Amino acid sequence: MKQHPLEGKTAIIKFDSGLQFRIDFLAERQLRWTSIRPEDAGATDVEKIHIEEYPGGIFSVDWIEASGLCVSYTIDTKNEFVKSFMTFPDENYRGGRRPFIHEGSFHFISENGEPDLTV
Fold it and tell me: Residue 32 belongs to what domain range?
């Protein structure tokens, strides 16, 4: 039984900052992110996530990476949009954390990489 509605889904995110990811929503409230920018050489990791669903196809997905990077996505699946708020350690900023905000497109894809129109 699925633990949340996005489990088993895959998406492509392209942020206005230039960052681009393939996101795989896995079982046991996990997410695999993989950079799809050539300069990142396929950087990837699996994260334990907190996920909440809101009316209208809106999801909040949050995690903390081993590096201390905190990531929070607000995903609007109906309008294919994502906004991200991240913080990472930087003693030159208030609270010792530097914020980074970006937004972009969010598209579900099928196993063959084509748009997933069943969602």
Answer: 10-109
